[in-house]
Design a protein that fits this description.
- With 257 residues, the protein is α/β, with parallel strands linked by helices.
- The chain has a single domain, classed as Alpha-Beta Barrel (TIM Barrel), CATH 3.20.20.70.
- Helices cover 41% and strands 15% of the residues.
- It has an eight-stranded parallel beta barrel, surrounded by six helices.
- Helix 1 packs parallel to helix 11 and helix 5 crosses helix 7.
- The chain starts with 6 loop residues before the first strand and ends with a helix.
- The structure holds 1,3-dihydroxyacetonephosphate (13P).
């Protein structure tokens, strides 16, 4: 008889949503999450302007919330930047850092992502640190080298106690928004590799999420893998029934076996 780890499922809305449709989605997710087993935790990462709405509609529910990025700076004359304590002001508990879309479109380096993770921790929030290789890197046999360096750059700046407060999301770039998820075995292999690095840092209990075309029909097989502790969900998190079905799949595999 083995007990699987608790699962964590987080929606990353990316640059989607408007007040009226968000209200419908947030209320449905809050209500649906109430029926999930205790072993499943649920979160949503919304665009900055909607943090107040998430706080108003999710407070008192089982769903936590947060942002999709923070500034690497703390305060000052930095037009357009949003500091981690500002995100915390809205009752947030999460902030994604290092999403591949930011690494690619905003030229974020591994070093910058590591500083952002520190800022998030300082604000008392949980950083969800995203890692992942491109198709070219995978084809060249460089997956472990790439994700290993991305993770090590973050871990190098943290004590083991700080590292233990992270969530890490493995999101192969080629699987994001493509409809082509990594297979459960491909994801498990990378997660096992990342787990070993975290164990070496004294942070082996860090939740390791998989992201990249997770849908209701592939979620359970992914979540069944021993080192996959849940998912970071893009497109499917914008549809309440799909998102809740994915959360339900996490629930189905996280109960005592
Ligand atoms: P999709 O689920 O749309 O592939 O996006 C995954 C992702 O990037 C989550 O951060």
């Amino acid at each position: 008889m083995s007990k699987q780890r608790a699962k964590l499922v987080v929606g990353n809305w990316k640059m989607h949503g408007r007040l009226a449709e968000n209200a419908v989605l947030l209320e449905a997710v809050a209500q649906g999450a109430g029926a999930l087993p205790e072993s499943v935790r649920v979160g949503v990462c919304v665009p900055f302007p909607y943090l107040a709405q998430a706080q108003a509609l999710l407070q008192g529910s089982r769903v936590t919330w947060g942002a999709q990025d923070v500034s690497a700076l703390t305060e000052g004359a930095y037009t357009g930047e949003v500091a981690a304590p500002m995100v915390a002001d809205f009752g947030s508990s999460l902030a994604i850092v290092g999403h591949s879309e930011r690494r690619a479109y905003h030229r974020e380096s591994a070093e910058l992502v590591a500083v952002k993770a520190q800022r998030v921790l300082e604000a008392g929030l949980t950083p969800i640190v995203c890692l992942g290789e491109t198709a070219e890197e995978r084809d060249a046999g460089k997956t472990e080298q790439v994700v290993g360096e991305q993770l090590d750059t973050v871990l190098a700046k943290l004590s083991s106690g700080e590292a233990a407060r992270l969530v890490v999301a493995y999101e192969p770039v080629w699987a994001i928004g493509s409809g082509q998820s990594a297979t459960a075995q491909q994801a498990q292999d990378v997660h096992a590799f990342l787990r070993a690095r975290l164990v070496a840092k004294g942070a082996g209990e860090v939740p390791l999420l998989y992201g990249g075309s997770v849908k209701p029909d592939n979620a359970e097989e992914l979540f069944r893998q021993p080192d996959i502790d849940g998912g970071l969900i893009g497109g499917a998190s914008l549809h309440d029934q799909d998102f809740l079905a994915i959360c339900g799949a996490a629930g189905a595999v996280s109960v005592t076996q």
